[in-house]
Amino acid sequence: MKKLMLGNDAIARGAYEAGVKVVSSYPGTPSTEITESIVKYDDIYVEWAPNEKVACEVAIGASIAGARAMSCMKHVGLNVMADPVFTVSYTGVNAGLVLCVADDPGMHSSQNEQDSRHYAKAAKILMLEPSDSGECRDYTKKAYELSEQFDTPVFIRLSTRVSHSQSLVEENERQDVPLKDYERAPQKYVMMPGNAIKRHVVVEERIAALKEMVETTDLNSIEENGSKIGVIAAGISYIYAKEALGSKVDYLKLGVVYPLPEKKIKEFAAKYDKVYVIEELDPIIEEFAKSVGATVIGKDVFTLLGEYTPSMIKKAVLGTDMPEFDTMDEPAPVRPPVMCAGCPHRGTFYVLKKLGLIVSGDIGCYTLGATPPLQSVDTTICMGASVSAAHGMAKARGAEFNKKLVSVIGDSTFMHSGITGLVDIVYNKGNNTVIILDNSITGMTGHQDNPTTGYTIRKEPTKQVNLITLCKSIGIENVVVADPFDVKNFEKVVKEEVEREAPSVIIAQRPCALLPNMRKKYSGSCKITDKCKKCKVCMKLGCPAISVEGDTVKIDTTQCNGCGLCTNVCPFHAIERED
To answer: DSSP labels for 67-101?
Structure first.
């Protein structure tokens, strides 16, 4: 039976059919739905780990123990798990191990454009790249076969468009893959120098074998249309090329993007007047082709930046234009990203902006605290960096600067990689103030549970991490819990804590407004009364429900959920909440 599936759902289906038994991941767009989709298969143990490094290590452990395993992450999550990834390349596997990494060309939800193919080459790990949902399922199953055949972990590289586009997938029965025997093999799995140096020899022998395999595998295929122009492409770039160029060119479609097939590329390139390499982000295929003597055209006509389009490809290859997009006569209104109505972070950033503090920010919904009108986030680097970067800023500029500085970090991000930064502050005698934005969920990636929520990915009750106890256990003596919507008290708390001559933590505690229980709680809306003096202080909140028409402030009741934050900031009590 065939079904329409997202690429991410198809990866999950492939894992199920391949007999996978253990999946551990950390949510990150555009990869999140792979793990969320796996939850519906009861035969698979699945979990959200605190971060990607832990997730990868869980999957490695499961593989060594004899179970087919998977870990999924976005491209920057691969940075976090790089340490075990490079080592598992040396150890190899017992049962099949697949790592799914989703790149984000165009940075739809990321802080950088990163090409994960570099990791495959650097770690010397086989990497497959599907083009559509059908291939997502097929390549996942093939990846487990290759993993066990060549004793290697296998990367599956996705991109935003492959992950989030739909195409037909044929569903098959689950394979009954028994656990492989567990045999103690310290020479293989204990990576101290004496063993590791011998395993490096094995890695190089494996790569040599893989280079022979990629020359003949049907994962790399040639499509001949009698053209004098050739195109080499993989993944979503192949789909774009087919849409733009159709049968006007011949294709070398690469399903394996590391290692690349040297002989196949050279022979293909030699047959054509012109050969274009079409690949998003970095010139990985292009540089390899040129290094083996093939004459190809790549980044001299294609950009290094962002996503490609069929129009861009058609113009570069055939010199003809096609409409970029369907357009309307009326211009579409600008819709910048904004925190939701009722977002608990809004109160925090309103206070921080009012106090004029320097804010070391982090990755999450609250990164939007950098946008107008709140504009109170000074830095955002990576997960967990708000805490450790602020420590560095304070050490660089001294105690008085520290009294103008706070870190903000979400509860999930704190569990991911903020704890060690806080330990660093305590251990090295810092006195920073860290605000943990506890909204009771992992909000940015779509409401995934984490160790602070008390539930597993399957919504089973579990031990809940107590942030107060955790912070105190690592030496923070001053931990304050405050509601950011109680603006006067929250401002008082922040003022007191930044003046302390000791490190402190403020837990800004209020659940995400989109959680089901909060939707029931926020069942009304707010209205402007005739007490309004048109001071427009409420506009400083950046709430999408509040706007100005002429000189009059209005609240859109279709967007307002009655959270009441605006009633707490209006100096004239001119806003009232109605059920």
So the answer is: --EEEEEEHHHHHHTHHHHHHHHHH--SS-EEEEE
